[in-house]
UniProtKB/TrEMBL annotation:
Any one Gene Ontology molecular-function term assigned to this protein's record: serine-type D-Ala-D-Ala carboxypeptidase activity
Catalytic reactions of this protein: Preferential cleavage: (Ac)2-L-Lys-D-Ala-|-D-Ala. Also transpeptidation of peptidyl-alanyl moieties that are N-acyl substituents of D-alanine
Listed InterPro entries: Beta-lactam/transpept-like, Peniciliin-bd_prot_C_sf, Peptidase_S11, Peptidase_S11_C, Peptidase_S11_C_sf, Peptidase_S11_N
Originating species: Paenibacillus eucommiae
EC number from the UniProt entry: 3.4.16.4
EC top class named in words: hydrolase
Signal peptide: none
Pathway noted in the entry: Cell wall biogenesis; peptidoglycan biosynthesis
Domain Peptidase S11 D-Ala-D-Ala carboxypeptidase A C-terminal: 284-375
Protein function: Removes C-terminal D-alanyl residues from sugar-peptide cell wall precursors.
Keyword annotations: Carboxypeptidase, Cell shape, Cell wall biogenesis/degradation, Hydrolase, Peptidoglycan synthesis, Protease, Signal
SUPFAM superfamilies, per database record: beta-lactamase/transpeptidase-like (SSF56601), Penicillin-binding protein associated domain (SSF69189)
Name of the molecule in the record: serine-type D-Ala-D-Ala carboxypeptidase
Similarity section: Belongs to the peptidase S11 family.
Length: 393
């Protein structure tokens, strides 16, 4: 009888344990596993261009050969040189024998042939011209070798920790690699130069328009024709890298970057990037804080040749929100470093934009000085002090 009683108690205990476990087992069965939208890619990233937020990733830090996606860095250095006034769009670029000897994708430049910077940029962005890339590298740095050094230095500045370039065009080379995340980072930086999409977003155009037979360009990125909002950025293919793409699209306020590497063919590559874009635009929205060019106020510089510096947004500042997520209670404020003193260097950190949801800090954006401010000379400081004394009276 005692044995029977013990057995019943044990059975009841087991039933109780099983009943307690049931909700957990049921919940596990009901959990929806995230779908891999890029099953064929070796590596992938989906990023919000404004905030740099990574929405989705797959093996994003795996080092892989990037093929012609390399040219995103080449285009970035060209755009920065244009911004700095080192070159002009109309300036002529001569083609060396070395540049003309590049194989693979090319615009068939002849040794000694000249084209404008704008035409070269068009040839790089649309036709993936290896010859045009080298010609521009030589124009900006004297040699491709020097230009590649600039590429690696810029990659380091951007925090591209898993990237090393050996050439400016992505032709197969030992020790030439990057990652999906690093490609997204440099793509985001390139998109800060909004004029670039004039080239990367065009489906077709011509070079040598005045020639007897103009050279017809067709964009290697077919999404710019077939996907609404797509306007760049760069395709890539070698037998080693397979099919790669860094693509961008914008709808309403939301711009996203999708990177896939190691795809088996162009059809799959484009289909998987399309899925990433569709997901982003269906699920997310962008809450704008400031647009590029908006006034953010100004900041004071103690003992500077310039006492007050206007502060203008150099990029879009926004928040990435899930659709349906309430934006109520969002506020932002400018927080400047206390006691800013001359000299101030160009790009020196001078404060942050702080974003709050009610009283909780949810995001912050660093601010840099848009100009260099030298220290005022003693005579200017004396005049300023005297003037202030009279004003006080």
């Amino acid at each position: 009888m005692a044995l029977l009683k013990k057995g019943l108690i044990s059975l009841m205990g087991l039933q109780l344990v099983f009943m307690l476990l049931l909700p957990g087992i049921y919940a596990a069965e009901q959990t929806v596993q995230p779908i891999d939208m890029t099953p064929n890619a070796l590596s992938a990233v989906l990023m919000d261009a404004d905030t740099g937020t990574i929405i989705m990733n797959k093996n994003m830090d795996t080092k892989l050969p990037p093929a012609s996606i390399t040219k995103i860095m080449t285009m970035l250095l060209i755009m920065e040189a244009l911004d700095q006034g080192k070159i002009k769009m109309t300036e002529k670029v001569s083609t060396s024998e070395y540049a003309a000897s590049m194989g693979g994708s090319q615009i068939f430049l002849e040794p000694g042939e000249e084209m404008s910077v704008e035409e070269m940029l068009k040839g790089i962005a649309m036709a993936s011209g290896n010859d045009a890339s080298v010609a521009m590298a030589e124009k900006l740095a004297g040699s491709e070798e020097n230009f590649v050094q600039m590429m690696n230095e810029r990659a380091e500045q951007l925090g591209m920790k898993n990237t090393h370039f050996v050439n400016c065009n992505g032709l197969p080379a030992e020790n030439h690699y990057t990652t999906a995340q690093d490609i997204a980072i440099m793509s985001r930086e390139l998109l800060k130069h909004s004029i670039i999409t004039k080239f990367t977003g065009a489906y077709q155009d011509y070079l040598r328009k005045d020639a007897e037979t103009p050279f017809w360009l067709v964009n290697t990125n077919k999404l710019v024709r077939f996907y609404t909002g797509a306007d760049g950025l760069k395709t890539g293919y070698t037998s080693e890298a397979k099919f790669c793409l860094s693509a961008t699209a914008k709808r309403d306020n939301l711009r996203v970057i999708a990177v896939v590497m190691g795809e088996p063919n162009t059809k799959t590559r484009n289909a998987e990037v399309t899925k990433l874009f569709d997901y982003a635009f269906a699920q997310y929205t962008n809450y704008p804080l400031f647009k590029a060019g908006d006034s953010l106020g100004s900041f004071n510089v103690s003992k500077g040749a310039q006492t007050q510096v206007p502060l203008v947004a150099k990029q879009n500042y926004s928040l990435l929100l899930k659709k349906g997520e309430a934006s109520k209670g969002l506020r932002h404020e400018l927080q400047l470093e206390p006691g800013l003193k001359a000299p101030i260097t160009l790009g020196q950190p001078i404060g942050k934009i702080m974003v709050y949801k009610d009283d909780a800090l949810i995001s912050e954006f660093p601010l840099e000085s848009p100009v260099a401010v030298s220290k005022a000379g003693w005579w200017k400081l004396l005049k300023r002090t005297t003037s202030n004394l009279f004003l006080l009276k």
